[in-house]
Structure formats: C-alpha cells, structure tokens
Amino acid sequence: MTDARHLDTDRRQDFVLLFDVSDGNPNGDPDAGNMPRVDPETMQGLVTDVAIKRKVRDWVDALRGDEGPYKIYVQSGEALNAKHRRAYEALEVESTGSKQDIETVDKARTWMCKNFYDIRTFGAVMTTGVNCGEVRGPIQLTFARSIDPVVPMNVTITRVAVTRQEDAQVVVGDESEVSGKQTEMGRKAIVPYGLYRAHGFYNPHFARQAGFSDQDLGLFWQALLV
C-alpha cells in the first residue's frame, strides 16, 4: 500500500526542498544587474521564498489554470482589485471599499479561496481598495540557501540580429571600409553549479480555514518535483 501521509491535510508537515542549478540563474537580484543572489558574508547562493512560490504558481497555471478552482491570483496582466471585484460580482453585492461589513467580507474571502489556488495555498492580504479580507496560507517557505559557496559569472553573449533598422545599414567608404552593426552584444548572469536547500511548513489549522484540500496538497508536491 502506498504511504499517503504526505497527502494528509490533518497532519502538520515540515519538509526540506533540495534543488540544484547548472549554468543558470535561479533568482536574479534587480539591485545587482540581475546577478544571482548571494550572501556577501558566506558567498552562499540565495533564492527567495517569493521566487519559489512563483515557480509553483506558474506550473499550476500551466497545468490547470483553465479550471475554475485553480486560477492564479498573483500574476502579471491584471490588477488585484479587479479580481477582488469578481467576488462581489459573483455575490451580487456592491463593494463599499475598505469599510465593507464583516459578513460580506467573509463571503468574499471564501469566494476568493475557492477560486484561486495560490490564495488557498500561500495566503493573501486582499484589503487593497476592494476589501476581500485576509487569508493565512497553510504552506510557507524559507529562503533557499546553497549548501556551498557559489561563484556567479557574467557571460558575454552575442546575437546576429540587430535591434534598429538604421544600425543594420551597410555603408561602404572611400577605402572600401564597411560600417554598420552586424551583431548585438549582451550579458548573461549564471551560477556554474549550486545545490540549494529550503525549508517549508504545512499548517492544517490554516488549511481548514482556507478550504485547502488533499488534492491541493498533492498538486503542490507535484509542482516542487518538476
């Protein structure tokens, strides 16, 4: 019989996530030219919990995002308040902003939990303008830190296509000198190799409050494995 304790939503679970990176950038730092994040004291590589959650969100969206209960709340292309309004439209109630009555906010929060996978999983603060309350997510993650120090590299790359039409124009000078750009230069930041470790926690009490199911938990484990 297969051991399904990892799918038991009534059991508190602590877990360790190990993943490695070869010639890639697991989490670029926008304050450092998108170089891989490192701890300047230990030179261990870092990956934020937000970046790990983003990968889970993207995988679930790609696999089951067309299904109602598995929509993704935090993603580009649509303002969060627009998604909050969906709850009030579904409930056929007019929003009065942050001063909405508690009963309506509770109903809106329940609707949001039912329809958005990442709210049920990671929680959300939905009090921005159109009030749908707050949800404490049952799954939380720490930063991932590489086991050993890493040495980020900034590799120069080229491409044969130029950006602007005028740059591609070829001009032949008096002495047969040819001008005009033939390539574009760029840079790519990578970690040659790093083995990263993060810790995670599952809280069954928060899972019951958010309506988080064993199917949701199984989907989360699958997302970590791909």
Helices, strands, pairings?
Blueprint: E1 13-24, E2 28-29, E3 35-36, E4 44-47, H1 49-64, H2 80-91, H3 102-115, H4 117-122, E5 123-125, E6 134-136, E7 139-141, E8 144-149, E9 153-159, H5 165-168, E10 171-172, E11 178-179, E12 184-202, H6 204-210, H7 214-225
Key features?
226 residues, alpha+beta, 6-stranded antiparallel β-sheet, two-stranded antiparallel ribbon, 7 helices, 31% helix, globular
Structural class: alpha+beta
Low-confidence stretches: none
Distance between the first and last residues' Cα: 24 Å
Task: Look at the structure and give the mean pLDDT.
Answer: 90
Note the run of SSEs as H and E: EEEEHHHHEEEEEHEEEHH
Mind describing the biggest β-sheet? 6 strands, antiparallel
Radius of gyration: 24 Å
Helix content: 25-40%
Shape: globular
How much strand?
25-35%
- Count the helices. How many? 7
Number of strands: 12
Domains, number: 1
Structure description:
It is a single chain. This protein is an alpha+beta fold and 226 residues long. The protein has helices at 49-64, 80-91, 102-115, 117-122, 165-168, 204-210, 214-225; strands at residues 13-24, 28-29, 35-36, 44-47, 123-125, 134-136, 139-141, 144-149, 153-159, 171-172, 178-179, 184-202. The protein has one domain. α1 crosses α7 and α2 (80-91) crosses α3. The mean pLDDT is 90.
